[in-house]
Amino acid sequence: MRGPEKTPKTTILGGGAWGTALALAALHAGHHVRLWARDGEIAKAITKGKNPRYLPGIAFDTGIEATTDLQTALDQTDCVLSVTPAQSLRMVLNEIRAHMPANIPLVLCAKGIERETGALLSAIVTEILPKAPVAVLSGPSFATDVARGLPTAVVVAAQDDALAMDLAARFSARNLRCYASTDIIGVELGGALKNVFAIAAGAVAGAELGASAQAAMVTRGFVELRRLGVVFGAQPETLMGLSGLGDLLLTCSSTQSRNFAYGVALGRGEVLEGLPLAEGVPTAAIAARLAAQHGVEAPILSAVAAILAGVITVHEAVEALMTRPLKHENLI
Ligand SMILES: NC(=O)C1=CN([C@@H]2O[C@H](COP(=O)(O)OP(=O)(O)OC[C@H]3O[C@@H](n4cnc5c(N)ncnc54)[C@H](OP(=O)(O)O)[C@@H]3O)[C@@H](O)[C@H]2O)C=CC1
Ligand SMILES: O=C(CO)COP(=O)(O)O
User: Start and end of every Glycerol-3-phosphate dehydrogenase NAD-dependent N-terminal domain (predicted)?
Assistant: First the structure.
C-alpha cells in the first residue's frame, strides 16, 4: 500500500514580481512554500498576501512563509527556485552555499547572461554548487498574469529527463502548464536573448517607425537568436518553442514587458534612469561581444549594444541596418 504523499517543500530566492508569482504558483500546486527576500518589509508584506512594490494592486492568498533568513528559507527544502536578477546570481549562490542541502535541484528562473564573464547561468550554478542538479524554467510568462492565476505555459529543462518531467509535474497546476525539456542551453538562451530583441522592438515602437519595421526587427532578431543557439549548442527546435519564439511573441509586443518598455523609452529619447529591471540591458553588451567572438552575424544585437553604450542613436542604428549589403534571406 502506498503511504501518504509527502508535501513538496519549495524555496523561492527573491521577493520581486516573478519570485512572488512563482511562490503563489507553487502554493496553488500544493507545496509548502518559503520565500527568501533580503528586504524585511517585503517579506512581511508577502506573508500578509501582498507585494505592493513589485505586484501593485494584486492581493493574493496568504500561506507563503517569507523570511529574510536564508537558513530558515532553505531548511529541509527539496527544491530551490532562484528568482533574483541574472547579474546577482553569483552573489546569491555564494550566500546560499553554506545553507543549501546536498543534491537538491536548483531551478533557474532568471533570464540573462553574466555580463562580466559571458557565462550562462547554468554554468555559474555548476561552478558554485556542483552537487545541485541544475534546471531552468522559462517561457512567455508575465508575473502579473501568473499571480492573477491567468493560464500560462512554460518549459522546465534539466539534463536528466526524469528530473525535467518531475519538475514539470511538480509546478504544473490548473493555470500553469509546464512542459519538460532536456535542452538546458536552448531554454536559457531563449529567455536571455529575447530580452535584447524586446528592447530593439520597443525602440522601434518608441521611435514610431511603424508596425512593419517592428515585425521585421522581431523576425530578424529570431534569426540571430537561432544563430547564437547553434554556437552555444542549443537544439534549434527548442528555440521554436515557448522559450524562444513564444517569449519573443510576448515581450516584443507588449508594454507589460519591462524590456519592451525600456526600448520604447529609448526610442522616444526619454530618461532611462529609474526604470524597472530590464535584463536585456546587461545581456546586450555581452551577447554582442560573444557573437563577435564566435563570428556570428548579429547586427541587431550589436546595434542594441551600441545604442545602450551611447555610441549610436536609434535612428542611426536603423539606417545602418537598412543599408547593409543586400543578400539572400538566410534564416540561419
Ligand atoms: N517579472 C516577470 O514577469 C518575469 C521575470 N523573469 C525573470 O526573473 C528575474 C527576476 O525578475 P523579477 O522578479 O521580475 O524582478 P523584480 O525587479 O521584480 O525583483 C527583483 C528581486 O530580486 C531582489 N534582488 C536583486 N538583487 C539581489 C541580490 N543581490 N540579492 C538578493 N536579492 C536581490 C530584489 O530585492 P530588493 O527588492 O531588495 O531590491 C527583488 O526582490 C529576472 O531575471 C527576470 O528576467 C522571468 C519571467 C517573468
Ligand atoms: O520574461 C518575461 C516574460 O516572459 C518578462 O519580461 P520583462 O522582464 O521584459 O518584463
Answer: 10-163
pTM beyond 0.90: yes
Q: What nine digits make up the cell of 198?
A: 524586446
The residue ranges of every structural domain in the chain are 9-182, 192-322
**CATH number at 9-182:** 3.40.50.720
Angle at alpha carbon of residue 181, lines to 228 and 189, rounded to 5°: 25
Relative orientation angle of helices 280-293 and 258-268, to the nearest 10 degrees: 90
Site to substitute for ligand 1 among 46, 256, 277, 281, most atoms within 8 A of C-beta:
277
- The residue among 37, 89, 317 whose CA lies nearest residue 196 is 317
194 lines ligand 2 (CB under 6 A): no
CA distance 3 to 104: 22
The DSSP annotation for 294-325 comes to TT---HHHHHHHHHHTTSS-HHHHHHHHHTSP
The one-letter amino acid code at 231 reads: V
Q: Which is the closest atom of ligand 1 to the Cα of 257?
A: 3
Question: Tens of pLDDT along 173-227?
Answer: 999 999 999 999 999 999 999 999 999 999 999 999 999 999 999 999 999 999 9
Give ipTM to 2 decimals. 0.99
Q: For 192-322, which CATH superfamily applies? A: N-(1-d-carboxylethyl)-l-norvaline Dehydrogenase; domain 2 (1.10.1040.10)
289: its cell numbers: 561581444
Cell readout for 100 is 543549501
- Determine contact, residues 175/150, Cβ cutoff 8 Å: yes
Please name the residue that has the C-alpha cell 546577482: 88
Helix 161-171 crosses helix 17-28 at what angle (to 10 degrees)?
Answer: 90
Residue 2: predicted pLDDT: 53
Q: Is 143 in the pocket of ligand 2 (CB under 6 A)?
A: no
Q: Does 172 show up as a binding residue in the annotation?
A: no
Amino acid letter at 192?
Answer: A
Residues whose CB is less than 8 angstroms from the CB of residue 289 and which lie 6 or more positions away in sequence, other chains included: 118, 305
38 is in an annotated binding site: yes
